[in-house]
């Protein structure tokens, strides 16, 4: 079917329903009327008029892992429903997205589930899902600058992965970047990424929430562009995770999606992706969503326990899942809306549970980051409680590469993690003399189970 070229549009609007729209090229993050967060809305009528649901599915399948620009990116292959405001010459991409949806049959069998699939968002340029949103944000800023806007730098508060994505995409675009992070609270691998890409890295004696307060003030007063997930442009790129999951299942819908939650932009993006597909006729319903939080930083879980009657920030305690060690998440209202729309649940996972869940899943060929361990721990809780039925098809969103958290892996298997002192799935090398008989004896003992 040949479809004529159509110009699509999108805009910012207030999540609370204030009756005003703003161009996506405006530099704004909150509604000036009520102070609530903004979201990106698309001209769905124009999108529906341009193509049927079948035609959109065919187009996206045709572009999947394309060889030509910009279809080399899983995000930009869905550009009409992501960022129609960005002109092609300003797209900054590192081939993000289109990541594997990896079945783990042994793990599924152990949990008596029909299927467990891991959406490998950490298999990306900087090793995390943050690339998906950063490509949209940095491309927008590049276009703003080309059109004459004054942007001194792009800045973010970060516990690791956001800073890596911002620094890499900013460097590719030739735009200065500033990273504000809590001193001593991110992994070495995460810290070295923004340093290597030339970002101005400021380590503050505070936690993520303290860093976030500073970067918000810089955005308001000092001409820097905010790159955290309160900037809803980020969520437009991240919503392609939901679209890819369904596409990779042949446009079928899993029973559940389990996703780690910290600042809660990612679950908001996941819901936005499912809702977009429903609106355009690609699917007829959304899966149920579980937001998995580390028990040491679980304000959404606590609000869920109260039926979302209210929401109260908490003082986040130290957790192995450092990227979601956030006590005052910016996107909590969006997250609550996502859970209510999908009949979702929230789980809180202890340090021992997340470490052992990661260790257990690794025995089936994975190499999971601690945040994915939180999601896996939540999955195991929900299966044990009967919330997720035996035989269900479940997708777990893996947010980052385990290679960025080698210290976590080493500590687990050396039993040096204070939070998980008795690792259930510990594995250690065995010292053996360099003699055939000794090696053969060790082999026999080891393989005997």
Give an account of the 3D structure.
By secondary structure, the chain is α/β, with parallel strands linked by helices. The chain has a domain at 101-127 and 234-414: Rossmann fold (3-Layer(aba) Sandwich), CATH 3.40.50.1100. The chain is built from 16 helices and 13 strands. The strands form three sheets. It has a six-stranded mixed beta sheet with strand order 4-5-13-10-11-12, with helices on both faces. A hairpin with a 6-residue loop joins strand 1 and strand 2. Helix 13 packs across helix 14 (370-385). The protein starts with 9 loop residues before the first strand and ends with a helix.
Write the layout of secondary structure elements.
Blueprint: E1 10-14, E2 21-23, E3 38-42, H1 44-50, H2 53-63, E4 101-103, H3 105-110, E5 115-120, H4 130-146, E6 153-157, H5 161-173, E7 177-182, H6 188-196, E8 200-204, H7 208-221, E9 224-226, H8 232-238, H9 240-248, E10 256-260, H10 265-279, E11 288-294, H11 299-305, H12 332-341, E12 345-349, H13 351-362, H14 370-385, E13 393-398, H15 406-414, H16 436-447
Parallel strand pairs: 5-13, 6-7, 6-9, 7-8, 10-11, 10-13, 11-12
Antiparallel strand pairs: 1-2, 1-3, 4-5
Helix pairs in contact: 4-5, 4-8, 5-6, 8-10, 9-10, 10-12, 13-14
């Amino acid at each position: 079917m040949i479809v004529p070229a159509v110009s699509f549009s999108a805009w910012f609007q207030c999540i609370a329903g204030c009756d005003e729209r703003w161009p996506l090229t405006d530099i704004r993050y909150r509604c000036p009327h009520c102070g609530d967060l903004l979201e990106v809305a698309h001209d769905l009528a124009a999108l529906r008029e341009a193509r049927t649901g079948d035609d959109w599915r065919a187009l996206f399948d045709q572009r999947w892992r394309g060889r030509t620009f910009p279809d080399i990116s899983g995000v930009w292959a869905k550009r009409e429903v992501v960022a129609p405001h960005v002109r092609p010459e300003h797209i900054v991409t590192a081939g993000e997205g289109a990541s594997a949806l990896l079945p783990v049959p042994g793990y599924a069998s152990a949990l008596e589930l029909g299927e467990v699939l891991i959406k490998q968002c950490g298999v990306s340029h900087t090793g995390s899902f943050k690339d998906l949103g950063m490509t949209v944000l940095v491309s927008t800023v590049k276009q703003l600058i080309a059109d004459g806007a004054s942007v001194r730098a792009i800045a973010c508060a970060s516990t690791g992965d956001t800073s890596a994505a911002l620094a890499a995409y900013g460097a590719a675009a030739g735009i200065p970047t500033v990273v504000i992070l809590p001193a001593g609270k991110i992994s070495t691998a995460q810290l070295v990424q923004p340093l290597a890409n030339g970002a101005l890295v400021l380590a503050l004696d505070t936690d993520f929430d303290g860093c976030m307060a500073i970067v918000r003030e810089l955005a308001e007063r000092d001409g820097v562009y905010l790159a955290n997930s309160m900037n809803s442009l980020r969520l437009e790129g991240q919503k392609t995770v939901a679209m890819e999951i369904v596409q990779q299942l042949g446009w079928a819908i899993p029973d559940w999606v389990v996703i780690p939650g910290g600042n809660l932009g990612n679950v908001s993006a996941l819901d936005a992706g499912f809702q977009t597909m429903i609106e355009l006729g690609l699917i007829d319903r959304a899966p149920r969503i579980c937001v998995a939080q580390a028990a040491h930083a679980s304000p959404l879980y606590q609000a869920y326990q109260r039926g979302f009657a209210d929401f109260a920030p908490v003082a986040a305690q130290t957790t192995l899942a450092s990227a979601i060690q956030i006590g005052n998440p910016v996107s909590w209202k969006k997250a609550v809306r996502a859970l209510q729309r999908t009949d979702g649940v929230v789980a809180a996972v202890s340090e021992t549970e997340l470490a052992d869940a990661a260790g257990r899943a690794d025995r089936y060929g994975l190499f999971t980051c601690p945040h994915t361990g939180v999601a896996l721990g939540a999955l195991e809780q929900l299966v044990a409680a009967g919330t997720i039925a035996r035989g269900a098809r479940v997708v777990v969103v893996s947010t980052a590469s385990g290679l960025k958290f080698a210290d976590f892996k080493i500590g687990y298997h050396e039993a040096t993690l204070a939070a998980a002192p008795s690792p259930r799935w510990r594995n250690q090398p065995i010292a053996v003399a360099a003699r055939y008989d000794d090696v053969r004896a060790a082999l026999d003992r080891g393989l005997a189970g």
